[in-house]
Amino acid sequence: MLIQILEQVLNGLLAGAYYLLIALGLTLIFSLGGLVNLAHGAFYALGAYFAVKLADTLGFAGAIVLSPLAVALIGLLVERFLFRRFYREDPALGLLLTFGLAMVAEQALRWIFGASPIPFSIPPALKGQVLLGDFIYSKYRLLMLAVAVAAVAGLWLLLRRTPFGRVVRAGVQNPDMVAALGISLAPYMASVVALAVALAALAGVLLAPISGVHPAMGADILTASFVVVVIGGLGSFWGVVLAAVIVGVVRGLTVYFFPPAAEASMYLLMLLVLLFRPRGLFGERIQRFE
Amino acid sequence: MDRLPVSHRRRGLLKGAGAVAALGALGFPAIVRSQADAIRFGHLTPRTGFLGPLGEYAVMGVNLAVDEINAAGGVMGRKIELIAEDSVNPQTASTKAERLIERDKVVAIIGEISSASGLAIAQVAQRNRTLFFNTGCNSDELRGKSCNRYMFHTEAANSMYVGAAGQALLRDGMVKGKKWYSLTADYAFGHDLLRVAKRFMNANGGTFAADELVPTDVADFSPYLLKIRNAKPDLVVSNLAGAQITNFMKQYMEFGLPFPVAGFGFDTAVAWGAGKGNVLGIWPLVWDSQVKTPSAQRFTEAFVKKYGKPPENQAWGDYMSTKHVAQAMNELKTTDSTRVVEHLEKGARFDILKSREGYYRNWDHQLMQEMYTITFKPAAEVKDKWDLFTLSAPVPAANQSLEVLAPTREENNCTMPA
User: Which residues touch B302 (CB under 8 Å, ≥6 apart)?
Assistant: First the structure.
């Protein structure tokens, strides 16, 4: 039994990657722009659909590179013509905008590709399992984990070790001071949105072979990703990473002991965290909507 | 831009109007405006959410049927006008059914896939003495405890699905003395299906290695797959529904577990959505375009011509129901619901695009019909993305009564409220 519990814990650590890429993008856009992006799931779905279409001609490797780039371009357009008008506005307006955008995107996918899920498989080279003693891992999920870890590490380096990252972090902490120093945040904001939606699209590409590709897939994963962001603390990088891992482990253990509560477990976890630490695990301050 | 406030605002306004127009086109169902002396049929089915993929085929099926009926002269010389909407959830389904009957004066409501919404529509239909043809709800309970005089079931009941797949499992020796690991969708349909499946398993000497409820929003099955791997069952049984079957099967293949798989609820769209090599096992099916009777082939050809892809089993259900309602009304020369009910209860026979004709059983209004089981082909034998499985001969066999799969009065008694 102990072995089986350990197995669930290890699998949970992997499963955290499922939400991580989406949650990181959400928290980035919120930190810098103050915008809660309810359309983030739509970019994830777009990533998956682009991957299906691109993989026909370019193969999975091509899709994994090009699909996030294509979605980032769309992100730039959305940022330039929509998001930009709402950074300093009442947060409720931003919520309305992105909620509407999510619905338009979902219906558009339904319109173009139909409501039925579109078939998409794991590339043959990545099929199969790795056995370590008594533990089983799917080769594909190990790759998924590697890509997610690389993306997280890359993002961390970008924010911590580059001039670009310094401006972004300064903008998060004190946008007025950044403006007073004569630095315009607009191009940084555009890059951050492009980066965030590219991460969501990357998650879409990675998950497309193991879950269904259908128009509502974005809405399905968005709620769970928000829970991860809230548990981690809005605006906190490592908080989100830790929360994703914890949610994965807690889900796995719940399935082991009491499967009907599999999905409820993460909401209970959020409730507990908010009761004892309203700002989330690593949140630096409580974000207020006024 | 600051110097041109008026044009700027107008542009914003235009954009807003454009967005609203786009939403209108996408978000709302097309309502055919009234024509004089047309007869109206109402159609309700979920078009969004996890049953949306099936609802899309349902809408294609009903539209094709209405086209064909109208081309052949309509109902008593009058054209059918179809009012079709998204049923969304039980509350909305109930409200929309009410409106279809009271405002639009439909003579029948056809459709639905969710058993919970089906029950809501059935109650409205009974109160208003309006026909309701259930095309996609499987729960036995709708034919038993919740049955009513105005509701007819073209869709097969859970018992019939379990019976069909069960025959194949008995043939392969997968029941007696075997341990099943079952995963069940945690809502009305799943609970009903589990009850019937358990009855079958116990009656034939099988046992559960484990029997687990799965919340309908589970998308990552990896923790379940680890448990299954450790339990080493003889058979993994799916009582899941809709898109969840797609996710479960894709991940089952990803983990490469060695146990055989069977399921008791199935729709072809689920397998098409998973793709070749991503589903295996034995599953029951109510109809498929591989059925080669002349009328089935005509339907398949007309469907492919209109929509450019083969019909899914849900399209069959809505197409069939619509044809049956129109045929009954044409034969009786009336749209009076009570007369139609009497006619069907007397055992009127219908072409159901299978080798034997079907009839609606008088005491529970279930369409008595042949079922099929399917077996998935290895990826190497698959010809195209629609061709994933082989279809069995019809069950029950030609020399058996059509009623052998259906629940008996003892199993699922129905007393029609007056």
Answer: B64, B68
